[in-house]
Amino acid sequence: MLFDTHTHLDAPQFDEDREEVIARAVEQGVTRMINIGFNRETIPSTMKLAESYDFIYAAVGWHPQDAITMQEGDLDWIAELCKHDKVVAIGEIGLDYYWDTSPKEVQHDVFRKQIGLARSLGMPISIHNRDAHEDVVRILREEKANEVGGVMHSFSGSWEIAKMCLDLGFHLSFGGPITFKNAKQPKEVLTKTPMDRLLIETDSPYLTPHPYRGKRNESAHVRLVAEMAAELKGVTFEEIAEITTRNAMERFGISRI
């Protein structure tokens, strides 16, 4: 039983074979997935997926790369969608200093507003953080994100940053990079992460794990992530599958029924 906590099954890369991709994930033991709607285009398609499959859930939010496109009323739209029983988080939200698509001050403002919304609704948040570790942690602290917690999606920081996120009540989620031979830091951080704070994901169609690196990723490959996590933790695949699924169900308030 596997839980892919972060995927983009509505991406155009899946337009030709989306149903087959979802079926392959199920065949590999993936029993739950969270699809991420992160802007004006992907939020509706994410909701459609969540409503079409009982094992697919939704997170909705405004991605930092798209922060500059957020308009008056979009926050209210997200708040309204959070009433839907298949929406389990606000995300992915955060900061991205790699892609120069939205000014930092705009990213900060949109990030803070969405944390505030999450706190008002009691919703966990899914954090996107690229090359912005210190500012992400600072804003999470200043906006009291510890009151709702959430997930550091595709965590790529150091163990020092990881400890700060854990202290704020966040889970750390790992994907394909932990399978890369030269990925010393993600492997080290995962090894040190407490079992009850560990999650797995694919971020498909991106961050494809070894041995498929360079090809399109898909949710079925979360099994490869789980296998590597089990190896790094020195436990069985079955234990990692059970623990990470339980962690995700509890973190996102999903019933086992």
Automatic annotation (TrEMBL):
InterPro entries per the UniProt record, alphabetical: DNase_TatD-rel_CS, Metal_Hydrolase, TatD-like, TatD/YcfH-like
Keywords: Hydrolase, Metal-binding
MF annotations from Gene Ontology: hydrolase activity
PANTHER family recorded: D-AMINOACYL-TRNA DEACYLASE
One Pfam family cited in the UniProt record for this chain: TatD_DNase
Protein name per its UniProtKB record: TatD family hydrolase
Originating species: Paenibacillus rhizolycopersici
Entries under CDD domains matching the protein: TatD_DNAse
